[in-house]
Amino acid sequence: MNRLHLHLPHLEHNYKCIRSKLNPETALIAVVKAGGYGSDPIKMAKRIEQLGVSALAVAYAQEGASLRKAGIQTPILVFYPQPEGLETLVENELEPCLYSTTILEQFRQLLQEKNRTHYPVHIKYNTGLNRVGFPPEKVDWVLAQFEDQRFELKSVYSHLAAAEAPKETPLSKTQIQSFLKLKAQHQASLTSKPLFHLLNSSGVFNYPEYQFDAVRCGIALHGFTNRTEWDEQLKPVAELTSTISQIHQVKKGAFVGYDHGWEAPQDSVIATLPIGHADGIGRQFGNHKAKVLLHQKWVPIVGNICMDMLMLDVTGAPCKEGDDVCFFGSKQSAADFAKKGETISYELLANLGPRVERVTHE
Ligand SMILES: *Cc1c(COP(=O)(O)O)cnc(C)c1O
After folding, report:
1. Three-class SS state of 359
2. What DSSP element (H or E) covers 43?
3. How sure is the predictor about 149, in pLDDT bands with cuts at 50, 70 and 90?
4. 220 Cα nearest atom in ligand 1
5. CA-97 nearest atom, ligand 1
6. Alpha carbon distance 33, 22 (integer Å)
7. How far is the CA of 358 from the centre of ligand 1 (A)?
8. Host H or E run for residue 19
9. pLDDT at 67
10. What is the mean pLDDT of residues 186-215?
11. Do the Cβ atoms of 347 and 332 come closer than 8 Å?
12. Would you list the DSSP string of 229-261?
């Protein structure tokens, strides 16, 4: 059937490669949101924890709760806490990243009800991505929230909008300036010493000089940086394989798939795989956009991808039912495959569905 092989030694290699870009005192926050980028969040988190990571991060509280249930002890940041998740967050000793007056006040209220003090929190500023975060003009209001002992401010951060660009764009420069100013304002007013951080994976490779006290890496742990040159230093963790269910001999002029998707230009051999758009192989990969590896030969996906299946033209590529094919791995990485469907590694990996078995290789 369909398997996503996860090569944990590659994860370890990537972790060490990222660390090699950092000063010894810089903390690494490993981002394991979205099912560990479609992998196996618990296995990933456990291995990263063994490697001595400073903290983990997820997007939403329930993702952090399932890591705690699996026995993960490392601090876990929740990047985008929602009102409904605050209770879960406290029950699981997760650390919220507070990004608006609304969520900050709701969280303060909850801590008051639970009679909790010194609760570890993080503050997110919006310096130009315009997604979430306090506007920098709110800094005095934010600083005033730390006058009592309700919260313990562990870190202050922002997020670049264009960290993939090899050189800082004008927007990145503005964001960096704004963040430096916020850092100075916090340091001038606080007695505590929170960490400051700005960079994601691409940022670490492109501008390590802005690593501040910590960095937040997700995709690089999986082997990708959004730039081919840097990717060469990393190893793809995930390898997606499927198995041929059936083989058909079709005559020239036969149609393959829904909606007359493909018409055979010659007598052809078609192999059907038990994987479709419900498993994360979107329709955009069909109709010859993507190729997969079958016994060292590249064969195209023909016709429209179905919900549960897709078809390959295997004419001239000897194979039999039960043979394995590889969508992505070492020969064609998830980033390469994603490009064929005009998407990116993040989306491809995070879309892999629950019917794809995750198999970890220690
Ligand atoms: C997802 C996320 C990251 C990790 O980004 P990568 O590009 O995968 O390294 C870092 N910071 C924040 C706030 C995020 O949401």
Report:
1. strand
2. helix 41-50
3. very high
4. 9
5. 13
6. 22
7. 23
8. helix 8-20
9. 98
10. 97
11. no
12. HHHTTS---EEEEEE--EEEEE-TT-EESGGG-
CA 350 / ligand 1 centre spacing (Å): 13
Query: Whole-structure pTM over 0.90, yes or no?
Result: yes
Q: 């490993």: which residue's tokens? A: 30
Which of 80, 158, 216 to mutate to test ligand 1, by most ligand atoms within 8 A of the CB atom? 216
* Model pLDDT, residue 262: 98
Sequence-distant (≥ 6) Cβ neighbours of residue 155 within 8 angstroms: 122, 123, 194, 195, 196, 197, 213, 214
For residues 280 and 265, the answer to whether their CB atoms sit within 8 Å is no
Which ligand 1 atom is the nearest neighbour of the CA of 202? 7
Segment 134-145, tens digit of pLDDT: 999 999 999 999
Q: What is the DSSP letter of 300?
A: E
User: pLDDT (tens digit, 9 = 90+) per residue, 231-255?
Assistant: 999 999 999 999 999 999 999 999 9
Distance 104 CA to ligand 1 centre (A): 21
Could you tell me the distance, in angstroms and rounded to a whole number, from the CA of residue 167 to the centre of ligand 1? Answer: 19
Q: Looking up tokens 């370890």, which residue turns up?
A: 12
Ligand 1 pocket, Cβ-based, cut-off 6 angstroms? 31, 33, 79, 159, 200-202, 216-220
Choosing from 134, 200, 225, 231 the residue with most ligand 1 atoms within 8 A of its CB, the one to mutate for a pocket test is 200
- List the domains of the chain with CATH numbers: 8-231 (3.20.20.10), 238-361 (2.40.37.10)
Site to substitute for ligand 1 among 18, 76, 79, most atoms within 8 A of C-beta: 79
| N- to C-terminal Cα separation, the chain | 21
Query: From CA 227, how far away is CA 206, in angstroms rounded?
Result: 9
- The C-alpha atoms of residue 104 and residue 21 are separated, in whole angstroms, by 34
- Cβ proximity of 310 and 276 under 8 Å: yes
Q: Which of 214, 138, 128 is nearest to 176 (CA)?
A: 128
33 Cα nearest atom in ligand 1: 1
243 CB burial (10 A radius; 0-12, 13-18, 19+):
middle
